[in-house]
Write a structure and sequence with these properties.
mainly alpha
Length: about 50
Protein backbone atom coordinates (compact mmCIF):
# COMPACT_ATOMS: atom_id res chain seq x y z
CA UNK A 1 0.00 0.00 0.00
CA UNK A 2 1.55 3.33 -0.99
CA UNK A 3 1.96 5.83 1.82
CA UNK A 4 -0.51 8.11 0.09
CA UNK A 5 -3.21 5.46 0.63
CA UNK A 6 -2.79 5.41 4.42
CA UNK A 7 -5.64 7.14 6.19
CA UNK A 8 -5.86 8.02 9.85
CA UNK A 9 -8.97 9.10 11.71
CA UNK A 10 -8.71 10.98 14.98
CA UNK A 11 -11.55 11.26 17.45
CA UNK A 12 -11.09 13.97 20.04
CA UNK A 13 -12.77 13.59 23.42
CA UNK A 14 -12.57 15.73 26.49
CA UNK A 15 -12.55 13.75 29.71
CA UNK A 16 -11.56 14.13 33.34
CA UNK A 17 -11.24 12.04 36.45
CA UNK A 18 -11.69 8.29 36.13
CA UNK A 19 -12.92 8.55 32.55
CA UNK A 20 -9.70 10.36 31.57
CA UNK A 21 -7.55 7.70 33.25
CA UNK A 22 -9.40 4.90 31.46
CA UNK A 23 -9.15 6.70 28.12
CA UNK A 24 -5.40 7.21 28.60
CA UNK A 25 -4.93 3.48 29.26
CA UNK A 26 -6.96 2.56 26.17
CA UNK A 27 -4.99 5.01 24.03
CA UNK A 28 -1.69 3.62 25.29
CA UNK A 29 -2.73 0.06 24.41
CA UNK A 30 -3.86 1.07 20.92
CA UNK A 31 -0.69 3.07 20.23
CA UNK A 32 1.43 0.10 21.31
CA UNK A 33 -0.47 -2.17 18.90
CA UNK A 34 0.02 0.30 16.04
CA UNK A 35 3.74 0.68 16.75
CA UNK A 36 4.20 -3.10 16.93
CA UNK A 37 2.31 -3.47 13.64
CA UNK A 38 4.55 -0.87 12.02
CA UNK A 39 7.68 -2.51 13.43
CA UNK A 40 6.69 -5.82 11.82
CA UNK A 41 6.52 -4.07 8.46
CA UNK A 42 2.84 -4.76 7.87
CA UNK A 43 2.32 -1.16 6.83
CA UNK A 44 4.18 -1.80 3.58
CA UNK A 45 1.68 -4.32 2.23
CA UNK A 46 -1.34 -3.84 4.43
CA UNK A 47 -1.27 -7.59 4.99
CA UNK A 48 -1.09 -9.49 8.23
CA UNK A 49 1.86 -11.88 7.98
CA UNK A 50 0.87 -13.83 11.10
CA UNK A 51 0.48 -17.58 10.70
Amino acid sequence: MPESDIRVIFEIRQADGQQARELAITQAHVMREVLEWLARGRYSTGQDHAA
